[in-house]
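Researcher: I'd like a structural prediction for the single chain below. Treat it as a standalone chain; there are no partners to consider.
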Amino acid sequence: MSLQGVINTRLGDKIGVLETNAFVQGTAFVLSLAVACIFGKGDFTSLFKTDWYYLTGGVLGVVITITVMLAMSNSSPAIAVSVILVSQLLVAAGIDYFGIIGTEKVPFGANKFIGLIIMIVGIIVFKFK
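Model: Treating it as a single chain, here is the predicted structure.
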């Protein structure tokens, strides 16, 4: 993610953020489709037999790519990735705790809370010289 974020950000400096996102998502789609056609064992027709919210991954991919590029252009890659990782961990913990989108509920104990606090403090310490 770090390398891709930096590469996408530098390309965005040259051609624009939205243009870079279109290029990145487009090349990923073409490559993914080719790999799925060659090696895939699934069935695309089952795509329409699933819950609608499972189909939003592509939209989230666009949002994630753009926000990573913007974060890296507005701070250093290390800080951007640190904030992204903590954010991802917080969201994942919320998904676990509430059992969102069919996941099994997992309690969020004091040790996990303390771990998140330590990570956030670490980012703050890392950011200041």
